[in-house]
Each structure stands twice: as structure tokens, then as C-alpha cells.
Design goal:
alpha/beta; Transcription Regulator spoIIAA; 3 helices
């Protein structure tokens, strides 16, 4: 589990990789929260382009990022979602809470 992040014009992008499951979710949650707290972006983009699998732990990652962004009155966007993660997020209702940009 690795990720990269960068801040540009008040927009924090966090590029996630691999599988997001119970083995790595806690680290992602803590790392993303720390980045949001440090940079206080107006928009945080979680880039799922290189994520191959998401389970309920991935939902926790998104919900925690949403909480962090809500506390600073920012916006959370999910980008680059492939079919499997999109199915999980639709089933959970996450697509009703955050803006999602799917891979076409």
C-alpha cells in the first residue's frame, strides 16, 4: 500500500494504489486526515485510478476523509473509479454523499 499526494491551488490530490481492505485502511485514514489537517484544502480529490479492489474498509476511508473535509468546510471528490470500487460505493450510498468521477 502506497500513495502519493500533492497540493496545487488549494486542491489536495491523494492518489491511492492497490487494494483497499482492512490491512491498509487504518493507515490510509490516518494519512489522509493528517494531509487534510496540514494543508486545509478547499477540495480533496481521492484518486482511485490505480485501485484494483475496495471492500467495506474502503468505505471507511472515504467516510473519514469526508468528515475531515466537512470540518474545514471543504469538498471531497472521488476520481478515477473503476468498475469494482464503483459498485461498492454505489451499494453503500457513498455516491449520494460525494461527487464521483468514473473512468469511462
Amino acid at each position: 500500500m502506497q500513495f502519493t499526494s500533492f497540493l496545487q491551488d488549494g486542491r489536495l490530490t491523494v492518489a491511492l494504489t492497490g487494494e483497499i481492505d482492512h490491512h491498509c485502511a487504518k493507515h490510509y485514514i490516518q494519512s489522509i486526515a493528517a494531509k487534510i489537517e496540514a494543508y486545509t484544502p478547499s477540495v480533496c480529490v481521492l484518486d482511485f485510478q490505480d485501485v484494483s479492489f475496495v471492500d467495506s474498509s474502503g468505505i471507511a476511508v472515504v467516510i473519514n476523509a469526508l468528515r475531515s473535509m466537512t470540518q474545514i468546510e471543504g469538498t471531497l471528490v472521488l476520481d478515477g473509479l473503476t468498475e469494482q470500487p464503483m459498485k461498492v460505493f454505489r451499494a453503500s450510498g457513498i455516491d449520494k454523499l460525494v461527487q464521483i468521477k468514473e473512468v469511462v
